[in-house]
Description:
Elements: E1 3-9, H1 16-21, E2 28-33, H2 40-46, E3 50-53, H3 59-69, E4 74-77, E5 82-84, H4 86-96, E6 104-106, E7 109-113, E8 116-118, E9 129-133, E10 138-140, E11 146-148, E12 153-155, E13 160-165, H5 168-188, H6 195-212, H7 219-245
Parallel strand pairs: 1-2, 1-4, 2-3, 6-12, 7-13
Antiparallel strand pairs: 4-9, 5-13, 6-9, 7-8, 10-11
Helix pairs in contact: 5-7, 6-7
Amino acid sequence: MKLSAIVLTRNEERNIENCLVGLSWADELLVVDSGSTDRTVALAEKCGARVLVHPFMDFASQRNFAMSQAKGDWALFIDADERVTSELAEEISTLLKGSAPLCVCAIPRHNYFFDKRLRFGDAQEDAPVRLFPKLLVTWTQPVHEIIATDLPVRKLKNPLIHHSTRDLAHYQQKVCDYVPLELETMKAKGARPCLMKAIFLPLAKFFQLYFFKLGILDGIAGLQYAILSTYYTFLKHWLYFKQGSLK
């Protein structure tokens, strides 16, 4: 089975080379860029990737476009801030030798937040589906996108390394990128604007992450993650309530 390793990018010059080096074993390196103004495209081409520039609508649409352009039978989606270890590469290569199983593969992630490894909170359950036969899967949902498929899920053993958030400025940029798409998703699902959600759901989020999911055991990084996740939850529900109250 031929494998296309796919990376979506926009202004990822600090990440793209290290990301693609870990994918050099794939049959195809495909980068779909949504209008970088830095050296992302040039660096990706230097690493041997085929680069396509495609306007960004939302994450699911961008991933579906990338799959339509990939030449391999299977697709492996990796974010620019993720790294494939040699152990994970070997596990995937072994899986795809000969007649690959009909399944989609969830890959566990080791998440680094402000350069500190998170082991509790959301990190305990983090294993997104990223590897699958491309013709049997569709991406849905504008942000925090998920796949739609009838295939069973198989969880791989070796993890991705995910450098999710470098610092506060990086987190703020991600909020600016994601929250508008969150509002679209909430609207599409028919969610009702509600002030109480903006008040109580953020508090529930903090207690869930920090106490019930033991984020407290991650030290200062666990506290930072819980606080910023609480802020993110408040912001999206507050803005959605404001949008609804203006109509």
